[in-house]
Amino acid sequence: MTSSFKEKLGKGGYGSVYKGKLPDGRLVAVKLLNTSKGDGQEFINEVASISRTSHVNVVTLLGFCLEGGKRALIYEFMPNGSLEKFIYDYEQNISKDNRQHLTVKDLYQIAIGIARGLEYLHLGCSTRILHFDIKPHNILLDDQFCPKISDFGLAKLCGRTDSMVSMLEARGTIGYIAPEVFCRNIGCVSHKSDVYSYGMMILEMGGGRKNLDVGVHHTSEIYFPQWIYEHIEQGNIEPELLGLVSKEETEIARKMIVVGLWCIQTNPKDRPSISKVKEMLESTQPLQIPPKP
């Protein structure tokens, strides 16, 4: 299926992903999990959660293999890889193999697609699925650049009406983890924790840069959410500020940033639900500026 694991698509803490082909000619991505990592809980999480899903914005699990200590997951192949390589620096997001350039309008549509997928995980399944690792690296793009939420290794299943979930240890990726996940004094861990991660991601999509960047010219620009909030508050969002060309592009980026700032409010109660996030993104009405996060 993988031609002896010749073509590696990516690698992470969980293991490696290889390109494969099924007997019927369909291309697949084979995720081979590290045998030395943990007790197999990530494998169980992934199979248990994603096998319950069927949505255009959630990656499709085609099968899995468990043989002795070896664990593998077989997914539909996503030819455009992860969103990560398309959002940092609009000027340089055409990769070496001449992939298509993504405009702010493209990223905006992708942001709406991810929100739809997350809304489905939170509300559309018989059991609510909390992802706990929403970030650009875990958003895959098909041949039409339709986004698919992937990597459910840290996911947690809970009742659809549960307002909070219990958690023994923090899970997620630094820079995207909601504060209540590692500091219980802030609030309860819930579906709003995914909203926070989504907010950090959409800020990067709207700003075309990482939220934490020590390579900027001025120290005030290092933490993007804080820097951009001051400009939003003053009404000072010009195309050149975000490296854009037109006013139309800037308005789209501004909308994504304002939504992102609502999503990363410190108190989970002040964040919108993902359904409200989707509504805000699709609305043609001016959005209210949130309190400083």
Automatic annotation (TrEMBL):
Pfam families: Pkinase. Its main location: membrane. GO terms for molecular function: ATP binding; protein serine/threonine kinase activity. InterPro entries: Kinase-like_dom_sf, LRK10/LRL21-25-like, Prot_kinase_dom, Protein_kinase_ATP_BS, Ser/Thr_kinase_AS. Residues 3-288 form the Protein kinase domain. Keywords: ATP-binding, Glycoprotein, Kinase, Membrane, Nucleotide-binding, Serine/threonine-protein kinase, Signal, Transferase, Transmembrane, Transmembrane helix. The keyword Transferase applies. ATP binds at K31. Gene3D superfamilies: Phosphorylase Kinase, domain 1 (3.30.200.20), Transferase(Phosphotransferase) domain 1 (1.10.510.10). It is a single-pass type I membrane protein. This is Protein kinase domain-containing protein. Signal peptide: none annotated. It is found in: Membrane. Belongs to the protein kinase superfamily. One of its GO terms (cellular component) is membrane.
